[in-house]
Design goal:
By secondary structure, this protein is of the alpha+beta class. It folds into 2 domains: 4-154, no CATH class; 168-347, Histidine kinase-like ATPase, C-terminal domain (Heat Shock Protein 90, 2-Layer Sandwich), CATH 3.30.565. 64% of the residues lie in helices and 12% in strands. It contains 12 helices and 7 strands. It has a 5-stranded mixed β-sheet with strand order 2-4-5-7-6. The protein has a two-stranded antiparallel ribbon with strand order 1-3. The longest helix is centred in the middle third of the chain and has 51 residues, at 117-167. The chain is rod-shaped, with a radius of gyration of 37 Å. The model is unreliable at 355-359 (pLDDT under 50).
Length: 359
């Protein structure tokens, strides 16, 4: 850590201004209380306060190298008491010597100089501990700021690692289900299987073309979602109906990459797969007063059908990603009625981190 006074020109002016005020009080005290003429009082104040101002600058180094965390309190006090005695002895003796040389033709002042040594020592003790305390507070504040910065960087690195781990589950999870669908189609309808492979390759190309650590406009996420729907409609045809109801301002809102695809995948898996009747997947989005958006993904399902057991990877993945990115809980809610399933997402306007491109 650099000397705090020399770090910025403003600090130099503040330090000089402080000692200028002390000099004015010093001179006024000598004139009003001790009846010293203004000339002698000015020389006395200028000499003693200039010397202590220089001493105060030098005191930074014993403060910096006497770390309270590396030595006991008793040793710290002994060190500072020793430094204080030596410093005050040098300050008083130097000040008295200089004033005696400059004002040797003023015998009344010379008597005052010798008689005033005790109160100078008391004043010096006060200034010494005041300066030392300020330096320690500055060191503590700097250390605390550095610690908080390092902790913030570490927390961000941990969050990035967690996000990367979660995101790495998205494509394999989707790919696994898609390959199962293609496998079935190769037997029942090879032409559709071929078409599905082409659409799937386009969808995966889109996924690889975007950095998964970035937030993207909702418009791109919707387009990506529609590509996925196109893949699944090859297999299910009219049995899968997709409706979107999104207000225009929502399209520009930044959202996590591939945040909707697992929800659509779940709607198809637990709705379309098990139903004999057409299943409608509806995606709605509206803006909220706090500039966040609310996305609702809903689908009907056959309540009498045997529900497929899943691993819950999609919902868990989204929940954890939202917690990390926005540092908020309960951004995802699920509601299951008699024959309708709804997932609701609340996506704030900004993520918790300032580095928006590293999410």
């Amino acid at each position: 850590m650099k000397h705090p006074i020399s770090q910025k020109i403003q600090f130099i002016f503040i330090y000089a201004g402080f000692w200028t005020v002390v000099l004015g009080l010093h001179v006024a005290t000598l004139i009003l209380l001790y009846k010293i003429d203004w000339w002698n009082a000015s020389i006395d104040g200028l000499v003693f306060n200039t010397l202590f101002a220089l001493l105060g600058i030098a005191l930074w180094y014993p403060v910096f190298y006497n770390d309270p965390e590396k030595q006991s309190i008793s040793m710290l006090l002994i060190n500072h008491l020793s430094i204080m005695v030596l410093s005050l002895a040098a300050w008083v003796s130097s000040g008295v010597f200089i004033c005696n040389q400059l004002l040797q033709n003023y015998p009344e002042y010379l008597e005052f100089v010798d008689a005033g040594i005790p109160w100078r020592i008391y004043t010096g003790i006060f200034f010494y501990f005041s300066i030392v305390l300020v330096y320690y507070l500055l060191i503590y504040g700097y250390s605390l700021r550095e610690h908080m910065l390092q902790e913030s960087r570490l927390r961000e690195k941990i969050n990035e690692a967690e996000l990367q781990s979660l995101k790495s589950q998205i494509n394999p999870h989707f790919l696994f289900n898609s390959l199962n669908s293609i496998s079935s189609l190769t037997i029942t309808n090879p032409e559709k299987a071929h078409e599905m492979i082409i659409n799937l390759s386009g969808f995966l190309r889109y996924s690889l073309a975007h950095d998964p650590n970035n937030l993207i406009p909702l418009r791109q996420e919707i387009e990506n979602m529609e590509s996925y729907i196109a893949v699944e409609k090859i297999r299910f045809g009219d049995k899968l109906v997709f409706i979107k109801n999104i207000c225009e301002p929502c399209y520009q809102h930044k959202v996590p990459f591939l945040i909707l695809q697992p929800l659509i995948e779940n709607a198809i898996k637990h709705g379309v797969y098990e139903s004999m009747e057409p299943v409608t997947v509806i995606v709605k989005c509206e803006t909220l007063p706090d500039q966040s958006i609310k996305i609702t993904v809903g689908n009907n399902f056959d309540p009498e059908a045997v529900s497929r057991k899943g691993t819950g990877t999609g919902i868990k993945n989204i929940t954890e990603r939202l917690k990390i990115i926005y540092q908020l809980h309960d951004l995802l809610t699920i509601e299951k009625k008699k024959d309708y399933f709804t997932v609701q997402l609340i996506l704030p306007n900004k993520p918790a981190f300032t580095n928006n491109n590293n999410l």
